[in-house]
Amino acid sequence: MTDIQSLERDIESAITAAADEGALEQVRVSALGKKGSISELLKTLGGMSPEERKEKGPQFNTLRDRISAAITARKTELQEQALNARLASERIDVTLPARPEPQGTVHPVSQVLDEITAIFADLGFAVAEGPDVEYDDYNFTRLNIPPDHPARQMHDTFYVSPQRDGSRHVLRTHTSPVQVRTMLSQNPPIRIISPGRAYRVDSDATHSPMFHQFEGLVIDEVTNLGHLKWTLEELCKAFFEVEKVELRARPSFFPFTEPSVEWDLRCDRSTPGKITFGQGNDWLELAGSGMVHPKVLAMCGIDPEKYQGYAFGGGIDRLAMLKYGIPDIRSFFESDIRWLKHFGFAPLDIPTLDGGLSR
Ligand code: DAH
Do 116 and 66 share a domain, yes or no? Predict the structure, then answer.
């Protein structure tokens, strides 16, 4: 074997052995670079006799061309290999779900709370909040229920141990103390809604010791019972998703309102297991309400000579039971995962009036 042939074989096996483009480039430099073995060979042509040059010249040039072609071929091969490896490693299984299905659901009470909040937000009400452990003063006294007033007995109150100064806290028996907090901290005009928890010593199929209420309060110089009626009608239409509703006013008594009115909603329960609103011969208790008592306004720092307004309050759990066909209030709080899966709502669908309340 001539020197040229063995040089060509050595370079070719180095080309084949190059595992990536970097290694191949090193082989190219060592053969065809300025000081590469083939370049050095070509330089020897200058010192040759014309005859010898005529013979060796073409041989050397062919060698250079063949090596150069082999390097290019190997380069293409390596690029293809690299691409295939990348394609294999970055493969995406488009049949997999893009995002895992959310596991949890929104509790029907939370859903209804959000629905009611969305409806009142649309009517221009702000959301106000208060604590579950409340001053006796805010839960009763400033709502015109002084100590020893008989109305206190109706509330079946959970009392918290007395504070060091002798004052008593209670688990709020209704959301009405949020009215007091709002009037003490804001100037009229006031327009708030306050959904939240309340507590009473009571437990059966329709009463739970912890339950939910919504409270509304509107105070300005001219607001009257007509505005209240319209507001409750709008609430019922949006909440029960019906075009038409009919409300009936019943005279009532609450120490914090004068006059006091309870509202019933016309409904049809003639088909067992079904209830429809806006028609029929039955009435469903909706909410207690009234014009805020001047004494309450005064005890909350608002001038009753100048300002007036209405307040209302109703049960959220009962509305959720009616709207979603849940027979027993206690099932709300049993944390039965199968029940929650059945009655729960999709966590990413937030109730809005234009997007739909109860998808
Ligand atoms: N707080 C009352 C209750 O729990 C409901 C209520 C009645 C709230 C009349 C009001 C109202 O704001 O004006 O039974």
Answer: no
Ligand 1, atom 5: closest residue by C-alpha: 313
- Asked if 358 and 351 count as a contact pair (C-beta separation under 8 A), the reply is yes
Rounded to the nearest 10 degrees, what angle do helices 108-122 and 316-324 cross at?
110
What's the pLDDT tens digit per position in 183-205?
A: 999 999 999 999 999 999 988 87
Contacts of 147 (CB under 8 A, 6+ apart): 140, 141
| Pairing status of strand 190-199 against strand 126-127 | parallel
325: left (phi over 0), alpha (psi -120 to 50) or beta: left
Cα(247)–Cα(264) distance, rounded to whole angstroms?
6
Please list every protein residue whose CB sits less than 6 Å from any atom of ligand 1: 174, 176, 215, 254, 257, 288-290, 311-313
Comparing CA positions, the residue from 178, 182, 190, 192 lying closest to residue 117 is 192
**Last residue in a domain, options 89, 123, 143:** 89
With a threshold of 0.90, does the pTM exceed it? no
* Cβ(283)–Cβ(264) below 8 Å: yes
Query: Quick one: 191 and 319 in the same domain?
Result: yes
